[in-house]
Amino acid sequence: MSAIPIQRIRIWSGALRLCHWLLAVSLLTALVTGWMLGHEAQQTAATSRDLHLTAGYLLGLTLVARIVLLFIGRAPADRWRDCLPLTRQHWLGMRDMLIFYASLGRAPLPGYYGHNPLWGPVYLLTFGVLTAAVATGLVLASAEPALRLSLAATPCWLGYSLPEWHSVLALILGGFAALHVASVFLHDARGTTSEISAMVNGHKIFLLPRTPQDLTRPIRIVRRNGNTE
Q: Residues near 148 by Cβ (< 8 Å), separated by ≥ 6?
């Protein structure tokens, strides 16, 4: 049996991985403690509120760092261009990812270098939702009790009050997180690039094509010196 040619390439920088895991931990903590605040008695909610605020502050700081990384990140996958469909190959990758999801993983998983071509724009949109969630949380956290009651009783947009919008944004983020985790496990099961471990050690594993049919689409591999293969 001939050996399968593979290449292990560092895709995710240490800064991006740190931001990713801090965002994941702080968002999960904020979602869980936020749910607890809505179901606990006021007398026992102090700990949950403290944890929720701490998670919110960490989420906000990490989000700022990740947005800065979109513009000054040194690795190609750090930057915003890796998330947007700026080339024909990226649009073809989005189409193939839709086919892959619609078939529940039975269709071939298309090859791609950094961010998932379909999820990349969603990540940028999610950063916007996170920003809105953090901003509404900061307003509510800094408001005096009387003002907080007033904000809860006064619709601010589309008939929803500020606390209600904060809850709606949390539901959106919770749904995104669930879909993101499910898709990553599906990719890891059906693909070859080790999506989960790559976000731990930074490296993806690519099968090198021996014939043009070996890959659904050629993978553009970006070297650190800027050269491509």
A: 140, 163
